[in-house]
Specification:
715 residues, alpha+beta, elongated
């Protein structure tokens, strides 16, 4: 099984027209707080003031109820202080709604671009289709009328009418409407690159597609619903945090309600406006306002990277992953064997071997052959040359297992061959030569290290008669590990994530590549059943598992994994089984997905820490202001030396609203993520957001107090 990206596939020999400029990508640019986005989101923020919507967020619902009560109080007993508190309480609610509306608005902008890709297509439905049939009746039907199991034919220049699998033919397809990438990709029947998406365009050749989606349930329909947030459900951790915030809110409500009788007894009865202000200042409004935006933004960051998460639960699970299953080919390695070294034998120089290997590879269009030409050029300065009519190229065949070239030089006929060790050495013996004793151990050593040996031989038929046949040396081919993979795995290890390489190679080859790449473990000669068993063993140990896949045989493991990332190039079965789809079909992106998930959890934790610490600081602003007259000793708690009780309370409420709008960019962008252990991340959160949540309100409230003390009615 190969998971290498389809961007590297050649276009079919039939050729394809160069695609036109791609339509606008669904990726959204611009600042996190773009003024235009704010203006667009304001109506949505206002609509969210509906109590039926607000009740889903208990913290902000309490603030809205408080704003209603203070509005009533301000109308009944007008005053500057009452109206200032009322206005800023309403702004607090609107700012909280604005954070969610901006996050949703970014998704709606992406969804609008996706809607533009949908066209009213007339499908060419085949009646009575069967594989290999040469003449079938066609009927034109609207794409919306297609049903599961229908077969349609799509030719060059036509739009794919619906999601499905290619069951006949091969074609290059422009998927820029979905992925934003203009490079065409190959879709063909009978493999793991058979899935096509409705709305994409066939650029060359002809394919027959079996429809696999119902009307209204196509991939684009699901993308639109997901990026708009309509399909986003709260994750278990988010629900648990909401319950905690609601519990804290109830505790502070009870505390404030019982505070008034004590205040009356002490002769310091408080107005309804002050009591509401105290409740709002004490409950965790900051995280309550931003919690939903953080979750939406986490999914948005994945969409920005062309990954579609089927639920917020999948994003969150990615942040909790303990074990990462990575396919070797195309993920850890480049996927094609590359020439790594020329190993001459029998007194031949490395340059002579490189020259012969390059000549024998000039007509070899395989990745291995091209890599030999490149290595000879890079290491020895040898460049491909025009050999003209004096050269007779010998193509590779499965029977000969060799390729090469025949040359005529000074009357002698020179034959160069490059190929499998056994085939070349047999050819040398047939021509009267004897392979040197160095070759056997050399090829064995290369095979033992996980590489592939290619032997280069030369036979010269002399003009005067006689033939000489010698082995020139060995070319070491190996599946090259991608640059930087060891460092990435070191980072994952620092995060407490165990990496397992999955490969169909034999254990010896798998072990060599695993050691070079730096993965923690490997599973060699893996079958679908082996993958499933490995995932279940890890989960039985209480671990969360993430993996990628693209084929129908990967579907059971993708469904079993906690985070299953299906390649968009893969089969419909794989995409249905996974809970994420990578539109770019880049298996390495699984590492980025895990990092985005962790960033989501870290952001939520950081802003929760900040919010709770923030409430402590506001306590020191409001409580002394409320009771300092009745209990002069409490004035010692007025460490900010605020001007008056009214200015202190107003300053705390104004700061409470402003800090929400100030933190919206952080909630949308996410806290900067650095790979480290859970303990280190906790310590960093406490140092930065815990201490910051304590210090910033003291400074902010004091600055606001210096301003509002000049406002009549707040002195």
């Amino acid at each position: 099984m190969s998971l290498s990206t389809d961007r590297q596939q050649p276009v079919p020999s039939g050729g394809s027209p160069k695609p036109s400029a791609p339509p606008e990508s669904h990726r959204i640019s611009g600042g996190l707080l773009d003024p235009g986005q704010l203006l667009v989101s304001l109506p949505d923020a206002a609509r969210k003031l509906d109590p039926r919507v607000m009740v889903k967020n208990p913290v902000m619902f309490v603030v809205e109820v408080g704003a209603v009560l203070t509005t009533y109080s301000a109308i009944k007993d007008p005053g500057v202080f009452a109206w200032v508190i009322t206005v800023w309480l309403w702004l607090t609610v609107i700012f909280a709604n604005l954070a969610e509306a901006v996050a949703e608005g970014r998704g709606k902008a992406q969804a609008e671009t996706l809607r533009k890709t949908r066209t009213e297509t007339v499908a060419r439905r085949l009646t009575g289709w069967r594989h290999g049939a040469t003449s079938l009746e066609e009927e034109g039907v609207p794409a919306a009328n297609l049903r599961l199991g229908d077969h349609v034919v799509v030719e060059a220049g036509q739009i794919v009418p619906g999601d499905g699998d290619v069951v006949e033919g091969i074609a290059s397809v422009d998927e820029s409407a979905i992925t934003g990438e203009s490079a065409p990709v190959i879709r063909e029947s009978g493999g793991d690159r058979s899935a096509v998406t409705g709305g994409t365009k066939v650029l060359s050749d002809r394919i027959v597609v079996k429809i696999t989606s119902k009307p209204g349930e196509t991939f684009i329909d699901r993308m639109i619903a997901l990026v708009e947030g309509a399909a986003r459900q709260k994750t278990p951790n988010e629900i648990a945090l909401n319950i905690l915030l609601a519990s804290l809110t109830v505790v502070f409500l009870l505390a404030v309600v019982t505070l008034q009788p004590m205040a009356i007894y002490a002769g310091a009865e408080q107005s309804l406006v002050v009591l509401v202000a105290l409740v709002v200042a004490l409950i965790p409004t900051t995280i309550g306002a931003l919690l939903s935006a953080i979750g939406i933004a986490g999914m948005d960051r994945l969409v920005q990277r062309n990954v579609l998460a089927m639920s917020g639960r999948a994003v969150e699970a990615a942040g909790d992953v303990n074990t990462l299953l990575l396919d070797k080919t195309g993920t850890i390695t480049l996927g094609n064997r590359q020439a790594a070294e020329f190993l001459p034998v029998g007194g031949v120089s490395a340059e002579e071997l490189a020259d012969a290997a390059q000549l024998a590879s000039l007509s070899d269009e395989t990745p291995e052959g091209r890599s030999i030409v490149v290595l000879a050029k890079d290491k020895h300065g040898l460049r491909g040359r025009e050999l003209g009519s004096r050269a007779e190229f010998v193509p590779f065949t499965a029977q000969s297992r060799m390729s090469g070239v025949n040359l005529v030089e000074d009357g002698d006929r020179r034959e160069l061959r490059k190929g499998a060790a056994g085939a070349v050495m047999h050819w040398i013996r047939e021509n009267g030569g004897h392979p040197t004793d160095q070759v056997g151990p050399m090829t064995d050593a290369i095979s033992a290290s996980g590489g592939t040996p290619l032997v280069v031989g030369e036979v010269v038929h002399h003009t005067g008669g006689g033939t000489s046949a010698v082995v020139l040396g060995v070319v070491h081919l190996k599946d090259v590990v991608k640059a930087g993979m060891r460092e990435r795995f070191d980072e994952l290890r620092a995060m407490g994530i165990r990496t397992v390489m999955i490969t169909g190679d034999n254990p010896l080859t798998a072990k060599a590549i695993a050691e070079e790449a730096g993965v923690d473990d490997f599973l060699a000669e893996a079958t679908p059943e082996d993958k499933m068993a490995l995932i279940r063993r890890e989960q039985a140990g209480g671990k969360l598992v993430a993996m990628t896949g693209d084929g129908t045989n990967d579907a059971p493991a993708l469904a079993q994994a906690d985070v299953g990332v299906a390649m968009n190039t893969g089969t419909s079965a794989a995409k249905e089984a996974g809970n994420m789809v990578d539109l770019d079909s880049n298996p390495t992106k699984l590492i980025e997905i895990v990092e985005i998930g962790k960033q989501l959890l870290i952001t939520r934790g950081a802003l929760t820490t900040f919010s709770i610490a923030n409430d402590v600081a506001k306590y020191f602003a409001i409580i002394p202001a409320m009771f300092a007259i009745a209990y002069p000793g409490l004035d010692t708690l007025n460490i900010m030396r605020l001007h008056s009780p009214t200015s202190a309370i107003a300053s705390a409420i104004i700061f409470n609203a402003l800090i929400i709008i100030a933190l919206i960019p952080l909630a949308l962008r996410g806290v900067r993520y650095r790979p480290s252990s859970a303990g280190a991340l906790l310590g960093r959160n406490i140092r930065i957001y815990g201490l910051g949540g304590l210090v910033l309100p003291f400074v902010g409230i004091k600055v606001i107090d210096l301003v509002v003390q000049f406002v009549p009615g707040l002195r």
